Amino acid sequence: MKRYRLREKVCTRLLASICARNFILGLRNFILGTIYFLVVPSLSLAQSNPTPLLPESLIDQLIHEVSGAMVMSHAIKLGGYNHERLKAEYENRYHESIYIEEKARLYKLSNAHVETFPLDDWTWGAERAELWLEKPERRLIVRYRDIPACLAPGSWNGDISSTDLVYARAGTHVSDYDSLDVKGKLVLVSGSLSQAHKVAVRTLGAAGILSFYNPAGRPVDNPDQIAWQGLRGVSTDSDTAQYPYEATFGFSLSHRMGMDLLSLLEQDQSVKLSALVHATTYPADMEVPTAAIPGNGASDQEIVVSAHLFEGIAKQGPNDNMSGSAAILEAARTLNTLILAGKLPRPKRTIRFLWGPEFSGIYAYLERYPEERGRMIAAINIDMIGSRQTRNGNSLHLYRNPWSQASFVDDVTEHFFEYLGDTNREKVHNRRIKYGFMKPVIDPTGSRDPFYYHIESYFGSSDHAVFNGRV
Questions:
Q1: Domain annotation for the chain: domains and CATH numbers
Q2: What is the model's pTM?
């Protein structure tokens, strides 16, 4: 396969999705990785030594300018807590889109605006939801006003008074319900809410589902964490119904809440619950904020940096994916600041930044602008880089291109991961030079974790998959 020199051309595509974990150290490291790929083609390399590809002086400038604290601040403001999304947002602009556009303009990015795309389906929204224990005592279990994640998106109206609770183990297979009568009752399960809903509600006639399933797989470490879980009913024949699905409701509970209810059931007590759900829908548009750093005019090609700002509208995930959205915003600020200050040459190619709903937002944008899509030669997608590595036992992942679209840009980004990993950990054979990191990329407010990473083969679990075959 023909290879091009780095300083002359960026070949084909980079569909690298970075999916993993650590807010301050990890976010700074990833932003530097993104910037590293974006600026390498613009520089004349003084030597072929791959460690590092960029001059040390430029790496130092990038380290000194990029801010993990600012990324953390963006992520908190975008989705630091699950708020009740009000009617005004559905009817006007979502606060995430407003925030991204305002910051992009503040950072002097070019053509910062929000693209809107009409949706065929109405957008679901909740108004009120409460779950109460009635027997053996009356007390509140959870309320949507306090924890919006407790109500599964797609739930519809329901008013259940003092109804029996039945435990069905995982509840995801019909065999879990052997010898159980769940018709008209509330069902507690440890498995996926949506899968249990299909069996218990659609097939066996249960009134609703309560699930304390945690897909992160560490409920004991985070006993009060409530996982986002959604459901969707069976489509009706109506083309005019406000919510054209036959659905009941589902509550997502924490591990502690689930264990408390299960303990009552195991004491052979008659457990009764009440549930109230008010939901609605809105004719809302899909929003895709975008901005750019213009190239120097030597080429009309573009490099794209993307992160999904929404995963559905109800879900608000600081890690999935406000972390990635905040990271590319900071990458844009860092690059543009250094370019405007004359410390970094303007890139040959325009750098396009895209935020939007996962999959659907990027797809809609590419379909609306086929000419622009034709100028795109590479894409970097960032997803879920915000949880602390040592606490959660994870690492930052670089997903390479599929073998059918192999490109040397995989090697450029892999080189950066290796360089950063090698210089941001303690190495025994360096102890006579210094203990600690050789080239620390550490925010003053961040962690001191080593840079844990993995290089993976292609896996299409995020927006990078949308670019396959389209750019």
A1: 15-119+284-467 (3.40.630.10), 123-282 (3.50.30.30)
A2: 0.84
